[in-house]
Amino acid sequence: RKEVEQDPGPFNVPEGATVAFNCTYSNSASQSFFWYRQDCRKEPKLLMSVYSSGNEDGRFTAQLNRASQYISLLIRDSKLSDSATYLCVVNPWDNAGNNRKLIWGLGTSLAVNP
Amino acid sequence: EADIYQTPRYLVIGTGKKITLECSQTMGHDKMYWYQQDPGMELHLIHYSYGVNSTEKGDLSSESTVSRIRTEHFPLTLESARPSHTSQYLCASSGVDRGGRLSFGQGTRLTVV
Fold this sequence. Notes:
The complex is a heterodimer of chains A (114) and B (113). Helix content of chain A is 0%, strand content 52%. Chain A is mainly β and 114 residues long. In chain A, the strands form 2 sheets. In chain A, strands 2, 4, 5, 9, 10 and 11 form a 6-stranded mixed beta sheet that branches. In chain A, strands 1-3-8-7-6 form a 5-stranded antiparallel beta sheet, with no helix packed on it. Chain B has strands at residues 4-7, 10-13, 19-25, 31-37, 44-51, 54-57, 65-66, 76-78, 87-94, 103-104, 108-112. Chain B is globular, with a radius of gyration of 13 Å. Chain B starts with a strand and ends with a strand. The chains are: A mainly beta (114), B mainly beta (113). The interface between A and B is medium-sized, with 25 and 27 residues.
């Protein structure tokens, strides 16, 4: 079993739709969680961190469920420009705060259609 | 906006050649990383550095080597390129307190023929 698992999709949704992605992780000692966005053949870019209490940034909402060991990303009012691959990243933080063991999911592909 | 630069963006080179992929950042970040990513596949960490004169191999075995003589510079070298090295190489950096918040360069797409 992979340490971080995501539904690869693709998710095909119309503009304006609400779409949600889940990501499960196996290491219960994981401390930090992130969502990155990667456009086709481009570098990943940090979308948002995921906090225990849940957090929102405009149309994007991230949530963490430690008991069930998953994080989620909700996108409201989807735009064409949201089409990308969304990568779940988990950091099993060590005492020195080092993140060399960042664990990357394979990503979930989203296509927003006109 | 991230200030991390990779050169070249694209490289097509013959088997057996020595190549160096450049990565520089102007943010003063201590931590730098090299990832390898094939199309549609996940990122694999191949090298990382926590500061000058500190380098370690990542989770994916790689025939490449790295050096960190200056904080801002983290070049990756392949002594003898092979077709199996064809991939995208992504350099990233992060500050001391930024956890998993990485800034990536635009990548070098390497093709070995």
